[in-house]
Amino acid sequence: MKHLLILGGGTGGTMMANKLAPVLDAREWQVTIVDNSEKHYYQPGFLLVPFGIYSMRDVVKPRRQYLPAGVKLVISSIDHIEADKNKVVLSDQSILPYDYLIIATGADIHPEQNEGLVDDEWRKSKFDFYTPEGADQLSKFLKGWEGGKLVVNPVEMPIKCPVAPLEFLFLADAYFTEKGIRDKVELRLVTPLSGAFTKPRASQVLGEFLERKKIEVTPDFGLARVDSKEKKLVAWDDIEIGYDLLVSVPTNMGDPCIGRSDLGNELNYVPTDKETLLAKGHDNIFVIGDATDLPSSKAGSVVHFQSEVLFENFLEHIEKRPMPAHFDGHTNCFIESGFGKGLLIDFNYETEPLPGEFPLPGIGPLSLLKESSMNHYGKLMFRWVYWNVLLRGLELPMGSAMSMAGKRV
Questions:
Q1: What total of structural domains would you count in the chain?
Q2: Has residue 364 been placed in a domain?
Q3: CA 370, CA 178: separation in Å to the nearest integer?
Q4: pLDDT over 90 at 396, yes or no
């Protein structure tokens, strides 16, 4: 009996279990997935919880509900991986052997890495929205907040869903406008980037949205510490930014078990071949999603496109044949812009976001790099697609590689 061990039961791990388990001979293969929680969260929904668009009930479901028959689920934290011995050691020191390993351990925020962020004011005047607890607490706080200086600060890159801090500000603009207190709220993006986004053309378009909505931008800000007593951010070059309400995107890191296994970089992301998704230096370990160190966005659409590549490559690789599929960095992302509208960007390693129509040239119905109501509805509909199509490993009518159809260069 051969053992395929999947570490992480989030988006990537669940997709791969659903894709691979039905096609691997159950008489020859045991598929096991390890995660430390029985709950599966729809993480893109966290952004919408603080503004009352979603409740916590909308973004969580039982993990076992989305795993196929025959897949063994082990609920446990992971202590470390012994790659040279093909085994994983769990937190209780029990051992799971494997013939092939898929690392899908994701990424998470680590506010303890940022000086002054976690103290008595954490989740009182300083919040995150990247965790279920943070999103829920911020939702309760905003209901009674009467205004002041709201600062959104992604501390450093990379982060999960790089556009989420911008979306938060766009939604905050609409939220406070609808509450009738927008004139009492100063919105500000304090970012380590030189502009609104990592890609130049999209950064220009999104920067214009920020300006139009009267959201101030402080670029190239390297956070040294948070001063809770004075309520200010202090940069390494001593620039200070005051706040009444801080919405932080703390340092994002891979799972600590990666660091304990000497498999990752300084942020615990696994060095990964950017085309085949094999872990560098390991012939029987694949990596998917936020756990990788790839120069692509850490976003759900990336995991979806990677899963198709990994599925094809895994089945060939275990038969000792060349891996035919290549991941091109394809990323597709809806961006909420507030007031029932949104944008859509589609790009990869080589091509930055471009204007046009998606997925059909001249027809759409979605617009690229342009605000529309259809894009907003597309984002809301994606939650149903996530639970009912993507997680179950079903195919969408688009390939994993980015298409130039409908794009205007």
A1: 3
A2: yes
A3: 23
A4: no
Cβ atoms 307, 315 nearer than 8 A: no
Asked if residue 312 and residue 341 are part of one domain, the reply reads no
Q: Rounded to 5 degrees, what are φ and ψ at 137?
A: -65, -40
Tell me, what CATH number does 87's domain have? 3.50.50.60
- At 105-145, the pLDDT tens digits run 999 999 999 999 999 999 999 999 999 999 999 999 999 99
Other Cβ atoms within 10 Å of 68 Cβ, number:
15
Using CA atoms, how far residue 16 sits from 134, 145, 227, in Å, is: 28, 43, 43
Range of the domain at 383: 335-390
Q: How far apart are CA 325 and CA 316, in angstroms?
A: 10
Strand partners, 6: 33, 102
- Condensed to tens digits (0 to 9), the pLDDT of residues 69-95 reads 999 999 999 999 999 999 999 999 999
Distance of CA 239 to the CA centre of its chain: 30
Pairing of the two strands 100-103 and 285-287: parallel
352: Cα within 13 Å, side-chain hemisphere? 9
- Do 246 and 259 reside in the same domain of the chain? no
Q: Which residues 6+ apart lie within 8 Å of 100 measured at CB?
A: 2, 3, 4, 5, 284, 285, 286, 314, 318
Q: What percent of the chain has pLDDT over 90?
A: 94
- Residue 315 backbone dihedrals phi, psi, to 5 degrees: -65, -35
Is-above-0.85 flag for pTM?
yes
